[in-house]
């Protein structure tokens, strides 16, 4: 056991290279993400992340998904959106498109957590120590959590470079820090490793990321809208995580031929000339942004009448949802929807339209009966709200 | 050279032309000279662009890149190591045994295909590298073996089946590639509409298929305007192999021969005023010839395909557990295991004198013990997937008054046995209007006995509720890494539905539904018919849940326990 593995190394006593190819990459440590490195690919190839994203307003159909994403953009406190559905239905496209559409926000210049200078209570430990906070407009962060990410990159960890070269103990913020006040997007959320899911659950619930590792002890704000997408065929989501999402939408491949042709046509046009395609939809995207900004301004003053609250409570009672999260989300989402549509009050109609998205993932589950939960919510809505 | 082989070579050429745009090729073939020859052709078409082979079970640090621990320690600053995907930028990655690909790896590959770049957020560094690559998935699955993850296969333009191609087919000159000039360059919009229509006719749900076909048509056109011939060829290459149903036969049989260009040599003069509908129809007809002949066979097979490997279930799939009983050490990276300190120091000890030689850096000389990465030993763990036997006992008045005592006796016997084998036992009882977990999974003999003794009997038979409760318990056992076995003791005569309402018909329907759920979840079940005179109801139930059926009209505890032991 002791000499195991060492006999072959006797000839050359050097540090063995663990891999055949050691090619240093640009390692970005502790900084906000840079733009992608210059591409050396032929121009006729497919556009990638460096090209303008597919415009949100150019997405055909999928009204429920788009509505849910817009609601989360109006009121981030609804608690995230889960998009489950068929392959190739534009789940990722919609979320990236929404990011490009959001109006910029004011943030403390140089703060790794993009603190809001207008909300002193939510400042991070670094901003609190500063006497004068300089604000700058930054785009709303949409942070991708790639599969295979390690825990240290998600929560943040010891800055390896400074530790190794200068022997300093410094905190390097992770993805959760970058996602503060923005969106955290997880594609294939059902394939996420369990320990990462636990971690996200905790942070999403508290809005604070607590790091206790490698001799560091740091708390920083991490309020984000969790957006997950996935395909139920590849594994189910744990019920605890499911419950954290405010809205759950199901997307299906459109079956109408005209819609299908339209989808492929637009995608094809986008791939051939992304810039021209985006320019074509810039106006409609701008209109959505304007509506969003107006809705955010209207939201605090929007009153939810007692009748609507009562209907929401009766709906949740009839469906037997666990806890009060169902009612709370129902009320918040209906209010955000009303704000987005410019309504004066939150009506039963708003409630009825948003109920399937807000409640379908909170029912007692029956794996063979996946579509049934939507039907159950719709039935309950029809029964209770028509009284 | 057979037409099939010529087609395969054509696919290789197209895939090499724009590996990233096409996504790649799903090649169905056993390992053999034909497949190797095809790969050789592909490699020569690719020229100097990189080709990488993905080892089965590759770890994330090699796939996506990460921190090069050895180089980092040697240099004293973080040094990144690029992953296999980044190295293959501009070329292709060959994935052997793609049907064994874990869904996690498949999702990473899919994300790379989508983004054209690989992002790694690992080991304290964030890296993004271009990875505009195509995938060659080598599917060696046979029969009802595992399938290539559909999420990945959907993103590749081409599907090839080389199984029918003999070595003799690959020699000889290529048949003249018929490139009929079919009419004028059609509008792009019409081409897309035709492709969508054809895809609908062939039962292809994904919208990526027509999109891919359009891309391939552009590749075929080679920069010029896309012609009808290009669209048709693209439909044959991309849509036909994905067909999930045969296209509905042409409504007017007499018109079919004229509409079938593959049957008669193309005359090169299609109706110039062809409507959109006709265009799609002729596309469908063109693809008909390219549909694999064994489509129906494969479709029937697919219905019986085993459920895809599920991620997130730590239990059964776990290969190298990180918890459990330590079972020695082995050399390895700290990334995959826990450091075993003493064995590591022991491995480093013999070399200390050599390492302290003056050739080394002076800073090293200050360290009392020098440990190299080759010295690292990690603890191996052995984890036995323990069995939890879940008893779902019918405690209703109808059957169980005399049987309940026997069931209790069997559970106790098994418990005593489990105590020796370190297995667990749980007990769910259903009676009246619902089910309750009388005994959570336990090895505690005394507690189990107490729980059993207090088990009351009488009331209706809410069979569905009992099965649901057992299934829920089984799921939780599985989530914590165990293997559940459900043993149902009932006479199968349900008379209370899930909602708690009495009624034999509804109760039976609910029970069968609950049984189907157990089967869908792939939980091992045994049904013990406790009726004094076994009847068909319980047997139907056993069939519905895929259970082993044991009629035990004169069950006594010992016989029952013996039967369960032999059944698992």
Summarize the topology.
The complex is a heterodimer of chains A (387) and B (568).
Chain A: H1 63-74, E1 81-85, H2 91-101, E2 105-108, H3 125-129, E3 135-138, E4 142-144, H4 151-155, E5 156-158, H5 160-165, E6 171-173, H6 175-179, E7 183-187, H7 194-206, E8 208-213, E9 216-221, E10 225-230, H8 239-244, E11 247-251, H9 257-272, H10 274-298, H11 306-319, H12 325-340, H13 348-359, H14 372-385
Helix pairs in contact in A: 1-2, 1-12, 9-10, 10-12, 11-12, 11-14, 12-13, 13-14
Chain B: H1 3-17, H2 19-22, E1 24-28, H3 33-46, E2 51-53, H4 60-63, E3 65-67, H5 69-75, E4 80-82, H6 84-87, E5 92-95, H7 103-115, E6 117-122, E7 125-130, E8 134-139, H8 150-153, E9 158-161, H9 188-201, H10 208-221, H11 228-239, H12 256-259, H13 276-288, H14 295-303, H15 314-317, E10 325-331, H16 341-348, H17 352-355, H18 362-365, E11 377-382, E12 387-394, H19 397-421, E13 424-431, E14 434-442, H20 445-453, H21 463-479, E15 483-490, H22 504-520, E16 524-529, H23 536-544, E17 548-551, H24 557-567
Parallel strand pairs in B: 1-8, 1-9, 2-5, 5-8, 12-13, 12-15, 15-16, 16-17
Antiparallel strand pairs in B: 3-4, 6-7, 10-11, 13-14
Helix pairs in contact in B: 1-3, 9-10, 9-11, 9-13, 10-11, 11-13, 19-20, 19-24, 21-22, 22-23
What do these coordinates show?
The complex is a heterodimer of chains A (387) and B (568). By secondary structure, chain A is of the alpha/beta class. Among the domains of chain A are: 56-102 and 139-271, P-loop containing nucleotide triphosphate hydrolases (Rossmann fold, 3-Layer(aba) Sandwich); 300-385, Orthogonal Bundle (Helicase, Ruva Protein, domain 3), CATH 1.10.8.80. In chain A, 41% of the residues lie in helices and 13% in strands. Chain A contains 14 helices and eleven strands. A five-stranded parallel β-sheet of chain A has the order 4-7-10-1-11. In chain A, a hairpin with a 2-residue loop joins β8 and β9. Chain B is of the alpha/beta class and 568 residues long. Chain B has four domains: 3-170, Rossmann fold (3-Layer(aba) Sandwich), CATH 3.40.50; 188-264 and 273-301, no CATH class; 325-382, no CATH class; 387-567, von Willebrand factor, type A domain (Rossmann fold), CATH 3.40.50. Helices cover 42% and strands 17% of the residues of chain B. Chain B is built from 24 helices and 17 strands. A six-stranded mixed β-sheet of chain B has the order 14-13-12-15-16-17, sandwiched between helices. Chain B has a five-stranded parallel β-sheet with strand order 2-5-8-1-9. In chain B, β16 (524-529), α23 (536-544) and β17 (548-551) form a beta-alpha-beta unit. In chain B, α19 packs across α24 (557-567) and α21 runs parallel beside α22. The longest helix of chain B has 25 residues, at 397-421. Mean pLDDT of chain B is 74; it is low at 250-276 and 298-319. At the A-B interface, α4, α5 and α9 of A face α4, β3, α5, β4 and α7 of B.
């Amino acid at each position: 056991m002791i000499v195991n593995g060492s006999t072959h190394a006797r000839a050359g006593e050097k540090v063995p290279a663990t891999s055949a190819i050691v090619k240093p990459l640009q390692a970005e440590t502790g900084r906000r993400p840079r733009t992608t490195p210059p591409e050396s690919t032929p121009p006729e190839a497919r556009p990638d992340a460096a090209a303008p994203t597919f415009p949100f307003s150019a997405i055909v159909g999928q009204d429920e998904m788009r509505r849910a994403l817009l609601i989360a953009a109006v009121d981030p406190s609804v608690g995230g959106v889960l998009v489950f559905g068929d392959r190739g239905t534009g789940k990722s496209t919609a979320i990236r498109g929404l990011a490009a559409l959001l109006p910029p926000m004011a943030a403390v210049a140089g703060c790794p957590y993009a603190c809001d200078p207008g909300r002193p209570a939510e400042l991070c430990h670094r901003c609190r120590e500063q006497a004068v906070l300089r604000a700058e407009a930054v785009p709303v962060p949409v942070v991708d959590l790639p599969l295979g990410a390690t825990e240290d990159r998600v929560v943040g960890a010891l800055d390896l470079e400074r530790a190794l070269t200068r022997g300093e103990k410094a905190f390097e913020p992770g993805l959760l820090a970058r996602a503060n006040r923005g969106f955290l997007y997880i594609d294939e959320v059902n394939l996420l490793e369990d320990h990462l899911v636990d971690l996200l659950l905790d942070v999403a619930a508290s809005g604070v990321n607590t790091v206790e590792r490698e001799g560091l002890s740091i708390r920083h704000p991490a309020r984000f809208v969790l957006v997950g997408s996935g395909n139920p065929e590849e594994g189910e989501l744990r019920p605890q995580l499911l419950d954290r999402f405010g809205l759950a939408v199901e997307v299906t491949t459109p079956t109408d031929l005209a819609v299908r042709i339209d989808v492929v046509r637009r995608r094809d046009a986008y791939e051939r000339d992304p810039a021209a395609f985006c320019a074509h939809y810039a106006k409609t995207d701008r209109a959505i942004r304007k509506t969003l900004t107006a809705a955010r301004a209207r939201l605090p003053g929007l009153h939810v009448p007692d009748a609507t609250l009562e209907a929401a409570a009766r709906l949740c009672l009839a469906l037997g949802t666990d806890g009060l999260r169902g009612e709370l989300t129902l009320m918040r989402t209906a209010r955000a929807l009303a704000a987005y549509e410019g309504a004066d009050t939150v009506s039963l109609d708003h409630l009825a339209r948003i109920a399937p998205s807000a409640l379908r993932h909170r029912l007692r589950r029956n794996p063979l009966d996946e579509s049934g939960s939507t039907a159950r919510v719709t039935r309950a809505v029809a029964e209770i709200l028509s009284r | 050279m057979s037409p099939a082989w010529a087609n395969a070579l054509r696919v290789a050429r197209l895939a090499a032309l724009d590996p990233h745009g096409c996504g790649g090729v799903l090649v169905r073939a056993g390992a053999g000279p034909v497949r190797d020859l095809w790969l050789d052709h592909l490699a020569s078409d690719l020229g100097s662009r990189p080709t990488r082979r993905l080892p089965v079970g590759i770890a994330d640090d090699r796939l996506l890149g990460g921190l090069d621990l050895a180089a980092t320690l040697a240099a004293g600053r973080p040094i990144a190591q690029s992953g296999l995907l980044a190295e293959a930028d501009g070329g292709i990655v060959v994935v052997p045994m793609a049907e064994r690909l874990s869904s996690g790896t498949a999702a990473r590959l899919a994300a790379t295909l989508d983004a054209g770049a690989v992002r790694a957020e690992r080991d304290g560094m964030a890296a993004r590298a271009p990875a505009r690559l195509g995938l060659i998935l080598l599917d060696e699955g046979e029969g009802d073996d595992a399938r290539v993850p559909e999420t990945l296969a959907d993103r590749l333009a081409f599907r090839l089946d080389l199984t029918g191609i003999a070595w003799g087919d690959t020699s000889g000159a290529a048949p003249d590639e018929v490139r009929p000039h079919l009419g004028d360059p059609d509008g792009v919009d019409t081409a897309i509409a035709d492709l969508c229509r054809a895809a609908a006719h062939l039962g292809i749900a994904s919208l990526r298929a027509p999109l891919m076909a359009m891309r391939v048509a552009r590749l075929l056109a080679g920069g010029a305007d896309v012609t009808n011939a290009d669209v048709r060829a693209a439909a044959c290459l991309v849509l036909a192999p994905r067909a999930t149903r045969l296209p509905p036969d042409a409504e007017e049989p007499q018109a079919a021969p004229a509409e079938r260009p593959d049957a008669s040599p193309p005359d090169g003069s299609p109706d110039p005023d062809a409507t959109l509908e006709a265009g799609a129809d002729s596309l469908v007809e063109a693809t008909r010839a390219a549909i694999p002949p064994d489509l129906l066979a494969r479709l029937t097979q697919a219905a019986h395909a085993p459920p895809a490997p599920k991620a997130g279930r730590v239990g059964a799939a776990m290969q190298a557990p990180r918890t459990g009983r330590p079972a020695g050490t082995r050399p390895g990276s700290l990334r995959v295991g826990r450091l075993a300190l003493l064995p590591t120091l022991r491995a480093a000890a013999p070399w200390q004198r050599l390492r302290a030689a003056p050739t080394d850096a002076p800073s090293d000389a200050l360290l009392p013990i020098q440990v190299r990465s080759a010295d690292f030993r990690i603890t191996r763990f052995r984890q036995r997937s323990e069995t939890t036997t879940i008893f779902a006992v019918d405690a209703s008045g109808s059957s169980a008054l005399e049987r309940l005592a026997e069931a209790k006796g069997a559970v106790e016997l098994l418990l005593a046995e489990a105590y020796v084998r370190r297995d667990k036992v749980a007990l769910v009882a259903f009676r009246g209007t619902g089910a309750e977990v009388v005994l959570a999974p336990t090895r505690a003999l005394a507690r189990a006995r107490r729980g059993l003794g207090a088990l009351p009997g009488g009331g209706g038979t809410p069979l569905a509720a009992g099965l649901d409760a057992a299934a829920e318990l089984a799921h939780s056992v599985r989530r914590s890494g165990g293997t559940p076995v459900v043993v149902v003791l009932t006479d199968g005569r349900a008379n209370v539905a899930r909602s708690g309402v009495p009624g034999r018909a509804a109760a039976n329907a609910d029970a069968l539904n609950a049984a189907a759920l157990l089967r869908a979840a792939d939980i091992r079940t045994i049904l013990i018919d406790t009726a004094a005179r076994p009847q068909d109801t319980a047997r139907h139930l056993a069939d519905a849940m895929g259970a082993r059926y044991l009629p035990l009209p004169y069950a006594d505890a010992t016989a029952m326990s013996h039967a369960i032991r032999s059944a698992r």
